[in-house]
TrEMBL record:
Ranges that cross the membrane: 65-83, 89-112, 133-151
Top-rank taxon: Bacteria
Protein name in the entry: Inner membrane protein
Keyword tRNA-binding: no
Source organism per UniProt: Kroppenstedtia guangzhouensis
Alphabetized UniProt keyword annotations: Membrane, Transmembrane, Transmembrane helix
Keyword Magnesium: no
Record-linked InterPro entries: YdjM-like
């Protein structure tokens, strides 16, 4: 089981905002937060990019390379020249937020290429509870931060 893509996008957006304090960082983090599931052809974004997801899945499998520290670092270094250091860091944290979320509801090879699975296996009900709890917590955080920013602008 995996956390739904909307929770991944939201956790990535929060991570991106935390490091940049702006909406662009939140956008970069949110997009990066769904990137690791490109290795799954049945995922929301894997379906839209089968020419990427199918080869990734056949070569590496799900929750391996794209769910690793190596992938996060390589993505950040690749993006740095194009989007700058703060936004590249937002992308790295967005990816890592995804990986952390998957580790709460299953196992990943976070140290890939080392083939050690790390994480917590939970029941379907446990997954549902964790996903909803995390999503609601992130939404509340967003409302608090946006509310504070609106109040500060007055």
């Amino acid at each position: 089981m995996k956390i739904e893509w909307t929770t991944h996008m939201l956790s990535g957006a929060v991570a991106g905002y935390v490091v940049t304090s702006d909406w662009k960082g939140a956008m970069v983090g949110g997009i990066a937060g769904v990137l690791p599931d490109l290795d799954e052809p049945k995922s929301k974004f894997g379906k839209g990019l089968p020419f990427v997801s199918i080869p990734l899945n056949k070569l590496f499998g799900h929750r391996t390379l794209t769910h690793s520290l190596l992938f996060a670092v390589l993505a950040g270094l690749s993006l740095w020249p194009f989007i700058g250091q703060p936004y590249a860091f937002a992308a790295v944290l967005g990816i890592l937020a995804h990986v952390a979320g998957d580790m709460l509801t299953g196992r990943v090879q976070v140290l890939y290429p080392k083939r050690k699975w790390v994480g917590i296996s939970v029941s379907r009900f446990g997954f549902f509870l964790i996903d909803r709890f995390v999503r609601i917590g992130l939404i509340l955080w967003v409302f608090v931060v946006v509310g504070q920013n609106i109040l500060m602008m007055r």
